[in-house]
Amino acid sequence: MRHSIVIKDKKPIQEIKVIGFDVYKIREDFPILSTLVRGKPLIYLDNAATTHKPQIVIHNVSNFYATYNSNIHRGVHYLSEFATRKYEIARKTIRKFINAQYDEEIIFLRGATEAINLVAQTYGKKNFKEGDEIILTEMEHHSNIVPWQILAEEKNLKLRVLPIDDNGELIIDELQNLINSKTKLISVVHISNSLGTINPIEEIIRIAHSNNIPVLIDGAQSIQHLKIDVKKLDCEFFVFSGHKIYGPTGIGVLYGKKHLLESMPPYQGGGDMIKSVSFEKTIYNDLPYKFEAGTPNIVGAIGLAEAIKYFESVGIEYIMNYENQLLNYATEVLAEIKELKIIGTAKDKASVISFVLKDIHPHDIGTIVDMDGIAIRTGHHCTEPVMKHFGVPATSRASLCFYNTKEEIDQLANSLIKVIQMFS
Ligand SMILES: Cc1ncc(COP(=O)(O)O)c(C=O)c1O
């Protein structure tokens, strides 16, 4: 299902309703949502930066330390075996969630950033040679730009950039023009964190594959909003971070097709990624351990699996439907503020709304709405090329998820009106 922006002449949205989904009940699962900020109830609209954790995740994280804290894979004692089992079950949970074929295709890392760096420094280092080209897009997060720039500098590669239009949509017709015999990878964001655009990755993958080019999908903003099926997508790599899908920070996933991961050299050396070590020769471990050197984030993986189980128990169809209605409502309400301009008006959007308010600096906006207990993000959102495209130094961004409410959006609108009054 796709999200879409409201059309101006539709009658105003009166209510947000998804049968079988009760947002007020859902909110009870998230302890932080009953926090007071500056004496006001917290209104958290910064979910693209990180999401809050349901009680079940908090419980499972603390339960790990309270009852079976132990290092994994190396111990024969009870706790170590128990922790190892939980860690490997977590891998299976994630494998099923994104419909990967093999458990070994799920590599636990720190997050999307580390996963992209891993692919650049292993797959890229091994397979790309001087003069080769990588295609990125103008709307990438810095973490899908800089790792490739580092590699490009090391190996003398060329980065080519697929442009966006003024709605914040990729100009897909340009893709074929950027592809040539030197193109070795297309690395593209699924959902833009600063524009909310949902990119047509199926089409990009189809075009790439018809030219024998592998594709990396940055799913940092899509894993929590869309149904992901890596088998169906047929992408070579898919990366995401646990903290964006209601899991802990410091844990994330690299999915890669098994034959590619097998062909890639290790990223880091250390314990667990080896079968045997001598000063003469070291034999590396099999997947996935080859890429998980040292003590991993055991509790992070376990917490992430719990977050995914929770997410599935709410139901992706309900979540998508509710968030879509929330986006439409917020777009409609904010569009009524004539001083406000939404940056990112793609047809297919996730529940992320970037905006500018006359010439008021976004940091001022963020600081003033914070006085009302409202958390929004202001800045360039680690997408400086997007800011350059739209000729702004920064935007304010409200990013919504399934625990947000219509009333919270109304409060944001009221608070923004106050900001305008203060500056006029
Ligand atoms: C689109 C996108 N890609 C990558 C990242 C990096 O994620 P992390 O900092 O969790 O590694 C983010 C984080 O905001 C993002 O929004």
Low-confidence stretches: 1-9
CATH-assigned fold name of the largest domain: Aspartate Aminotransferase, domain 2
Question: What amount of the residues lies in strands?
Answer: 15-25%
Which range best describes the helical content: under 10%, 10-25%, 25-40%, 40-55%, 55-70% or over 70%? Answer: 25-40%
Textual characterization of the structure:
This protein has 424 residues and is of the alpha/beta class. The protein folds into 2 domains: 141 residues, Alpha-Beta Complex (Aspartate Aminotransferase, domain 1); 255 residues, Aspartate Aminotransferase, domain 2 (3-Layer(aba) Sandwich), CATH 3.40.640. Helix content is 38%, strand content 16%. The protein is built from 14 helices and 17 strands. The strands form 5 sheets. The protein has a 7-stranded mixed sheet with strand order 4-10-9-8-7-5-6, sandwiched between helices. The relative contact order is 0.18. The N terminus is likely disordered. Pyridoxal-5'-phosphate binds next to α4.
Short overview:
With 424 residues, this protein is of the alpha/beta class. 38% of the residues lie in helices and 16% in strands. It has 2 domains: 23-54 and 315-423, Alpha-Beta Complex (Aspartate Aminotransferase, domain 1), CATH 3.90.1150; 58-312, Aspartate Aminotransferase, domain 2, CATH 3.40.640.
Helices and strands in order:
Blueprint: H1 23-27, E1 36-37, E2 40-41, E3 43-44, H2 55-68, H3 78-97, E4 106-109, H4 112-127, E5 133-137, H5 146-155, E6 158-162, H6 175-178, E7 183-189, H7 201-210, E8 215-218, H8 230-233, E9 237-241, E10 252-256, H9 258-263, E11 274-277, E12 282-284, H10 298-314, H11 316-335, E13 340-343, E14 352-357, H12 362-370, E15 374-375, E16 377-379, H13 384-390, E17 395-399, H14 406-423
Parallel strand pairs: 3-15, 5-6, 5-7, 7-8, 8-9
Antiparallel strand pairs: 1-2, 4-10, 9-10, 11-12, 13-14, 14-17, 16-17
Helix pairs in contact: 2-10, 3-10, 4-5, 11-14, 12-14
The structure holds pyridoxal-5'-phosphate.
Pyridoxal-5'-phosphate (PLP) binds at residues 111-113, 141, 143-144, 189, 193, 218, 220-221, 241.
